[in-house]
Give the backbone structure.
Amino acid sequence: MDMARDLRKSPGLPRVVRGLFLSRAPILLFLALIPGLLFTSCDSPETEVRTRNLLLISIDTLRADRLGSYGSPIPLTPNLDQLAKDGIRFDQVWTTAPITLPSHASLLTGLRPSRHGVLDNSPYPLSKEAPTLATILAEEGYACSAVVGAAPLDQRFGLDRGFQTYDGQFDSRPGDPRFSERTGEDVVSRARRILKQVDSERPFFLFVHFFDPHAPYSPPSLFASGPGSDYDREVTFVDHCVGNLLSILTSEGLAEETLIVFTADHGEGLSQHGEQTHAHLVHEATLRIPLIFRLPQNAQAGREIFEPISIVDVAPTVLSLLGKSQDRFTLGHDGFDLSSILLDPKTRPPMDRPLYAESHYGNLRYNWAITSAIRIGNFKWIDHGGRTEGFNLELDPEEKNPLLPRPDQKKMFSELLMAERERTALASSRLQHQPHLVNLGYVEPSPAPSSPTMEENRLLPAPQDKLPVVSLLNKAMDRRKKNPRQALEAATEACRLDPLNPEAHFILGYCLRDQANRHGRQGTPDPVILHQASLSLRRALELRPFHRKAVNMLASVSVSLTDTTEVAIIISEIEEAVARGAGDRTTRFMLAGSILTHNPENLSETELGKHVTRLLKGVMSTGPSPPDDLSNRAQELLLTVTQAP
């Protein structure tokens, strides 16, 4: 059957998309027309609500369906439900990536990852070319402040630009895959200090990020016996914290002039589709997020909007509500300005615009396929690398009944996907040369080659098929201290099931290093087990040449190795890793200690001292001001070296 006639009969595709094929317009022309047809602002709103300040609240890892206003049968979120009653609730909202840093970059820039360049929590920083709400509002005279709850939003990744105060500096733990974080109560306490110092003569923008619902789930004791699971009780706790924050805003007399925007960065799998946490899949459990706008004086309170929208719509909408020009987004934006829809009940968001989401996590961490999703209206396609499936979200919101796309639908999806991947490659190329971040070890000098072509992606394992490996690796990390034997068994099994997975070999090396320390004598690690740890870490680095945590742990292990030949090889490999940008300040410090301990090249004391001194000065010169603990330790070691007889 002719493609045009076939699409005309397809109920799953919106009219505007079918029309493109009826006129035989190429799909790339469709993509080129999207900004002009769909992403421009609506007509001026009939109702005008002026706002002075902005409070943007993000709760990490919050599923929309845990809020009572989004249908939760368990009363977990009384404060957020009240906010929904006082504001305008969007029911069908997508994030751009089920990962913290990329999604927050989209929240603040109005750009998808293919434009802002942040593909994972690390090592991709936000492009300096991309304006953010903070950079724009700071230029407009706003006092911009932020308090963030965990290391994925650490200031070194670029989200701090434009904020005069960015309370987001976290201590790194070399080699540890877990995040440093602060509790919701601590976040509120820090935000309270900022709100109490607000200058009445100057508008403010405060961004507050809570991390509590993120795994591992550990609700505070006062909330440990509430309804639901530990995850649910974490949600109840963070709702309590948001309530306290909103109370402070009211008590300080700031609520009436403040636009409040509440959202999440992504959801949580909770075993749906086999995913316990997030980042690997692009199903609704992790893509769908809550979004509530509370206008000053509770204007338009109680409205609900069910058309699908995206997290990239927030930044342009906020800018319009604050009376600022969209031209301030000098790169443009991928969002839709919802301000007219918020202020005028007669206007609605378009149903025909494509929404896009993706995850590079499995590819960057495990050498699996990139997963992508595109939604048009109520129809959704998911690309798992080697296969594509569709869902009618109106009839099947939990995605239990996958539909096999017809060839014409699959072709359209592939072309949309190819255009997005081309944008990703361009964004990656702009990030290849950022010397200050490469020097700090925060950026891979050439991230673009790590992204496979679409043909290559089809040959990689689908994350959906590898979730048992994820469970094993999570088990290894969860039991590393409580039950080391089970942790080691889980990591070993993960390597057996997925031998080309660099993260599996890294975690196995991690567990073996711990075992070597436990089985050592007189403070010296067991040399046989430590050798096994070094082999696993070297394999991880071989499979993923920019695996910074593997580099750091290997440098740490090398200090205690006894085989001088092995040490010489490892030090050479670490120096090569540092040269290509895979090392950071911690790597240099540990490398200096290993060289000083073993002197594998049999350098004279003078040459050895010069070599170690260069490394230690590099640690101190790239550190923060005032010096952190690592800088101080480097200074102490440097004094030892320079004062040696």
About this structure: The chain is about 45% helix and 10% strand. Residues 1-47, 432-449 have pLDDT under 50 and may be disordered.
